[in-house]
Amino acid sequence: MAFHTRQQARFVAVMRKLFLCYALWKNNRLYDPQYQSPHIAEKEVTPTS
Asked: Of 3, 33, 45, 49, which alpha carbon lies 20 to 30 A from 13's?
């Protein structure tokens, strides 16, 4: 069973990378390792009280 879980994790990692490549190609953009999506950056800026 553990083998199946590891195999799934590898598959998901590869699919995420392929999706990233496809999205960059489709939108004609360069890869930016420092990129943060606006909704993630917004969560980090708001103070928690």
From this structure: 45
